[in-house]
Amino acid sequence: MIRFRDISRPRLRGRPSLQRQLAHITAAWVALAVLFIGVGAYGTARAALFQQLDQELIEVATYTVGPISTDVEGLGGLNVAALQAANVSMALVRSDGHVRRVQGMRASVNPGVEEIAIARTQQGNSTRTTIGNDGSRYRVVAVPLTTESGRYAIMLARPLAPTMTALRMIGTVVSLLGVVFVALAGLMGYYSGRRLMRPLRELSTAVTRVAETDELMPIGSYTDDELGELSRSFDTMIHTLVSSRDRQKRLIADAGHELRTPLTSMRTNIELLVADEKSGMLPPGARSEILTDVAAQLGEFTSLVGDLVQLSRDDEVRASPEPLDFADVVASAVERARRRGPLLHFDVSLEQMLIVGEPDTLERAVTNLLDNAVKFSPEGGTVHVQLRDGVLEIWDEGPGIAEEELSKIFDRFYRSNKARNTPGTGLGLSIVLHTINAHGGTVEASNQPGAGAKFTVKLPVSGSEDEETVRVGESAGR
Known about the structure:
By secondary structure, the chain is α+β, with helices and mostly antiparallel strands. It is built from 11 helices and 12 strands. It has a 5-stranded antiparallel β-sheet with strand order 2-1-5-4-3. The protein has a 5-stranded mixed β-sheet with strand order 7-9-10-12-11. β4 (137-147) and β5 (150-159) form a beta hairpin. The longest helix has 54 residues, at 226-279. The protein starts with a helix and ends with a helix. 23% of the residues are buried.
């Protein structure tokens, strides 16, 4: 026996499991989301802090416009202490580039073209980030100032160290939170994958068990999701296989039992013929009777084998389903039955009934029902065949079926007490049930009041030619 587990294992080596793949994918997507969110949050915070810083510097510069405009030489009385308290450095830039500073304040930032442009145009304001004379980064703003002595720009500069410290803290917090969330996402993906993979592992174990031990054991536990549906489908398949295996075992056992009788009888007769060939012990005419008996047994054996082959076919109509008139099938079967019951009368009433099916198998099923009626009809009796309103009814004028046997009449190899001494294999009605069910119909056995056994067959009717064509295509596709 080939062990599928040994074959499949080498393919899985060196490759992560689905559970780990799910964890990696989850962590990767969360990391990507955290990256975008972190970058967005950091950029937003940086823009907000710089906007707030610019707004504060512009407000301070605007506030100093009044005092300085009345005292340009003394810079409105501003001193180093006041500017240090506001954490700014100030310079008054004239339109020709001349710079005036508060006495005692070291030049931290030199004016640039932006500040000179504001002084010359006297419009709007400017903001920029630059490196100061001490190597530190500064945020610089300039607002216009017009006096009698000329055009100026008030330039304020503030160190960016506190702002950058705040941004670094924000970046650190966002990064730490991102790492934590990615780790949590990976763990959640791993354990979620473990939970999701449990039904697949159970299914894999069940499949491996079936392949290695040939034990058709269902899983038995399901979840309320698609994987649970997969497990249910697997269990349904297992139950179907168990049922099919049981039917096969019963068929083989019953067939062996039924085949033993004609084979034993034929062997006995052939041994008598062989012994008679050597010793001539048989009386005159006995040899002919034995040969006749052997021929009858061969015919019974051939019929039994044919019935077994018919029953061993699949439960679906596969060969060549086609649109047909069931009345034609019944009429053909009646003609065959007439030849087998020449002394019987046949009361036949057939209406058109369009169906989709296999004419050969359906004719054999109807023929089996008619043969059953011929077998139990008294000499000169009448076999009634009626096809009306999509229902086929066949009944005879024989002894009927005992009530306790109605539920067993379609079982394989079942023969009632009345039929034990009549020719047959005990498979005819089983073939009828098998064929009608394969065509999506039903067959029932009962007793006709005042007559004998009655069989009722119902098949799905086709409503139109278009519908027939569709059904033929669907059946062929199966």
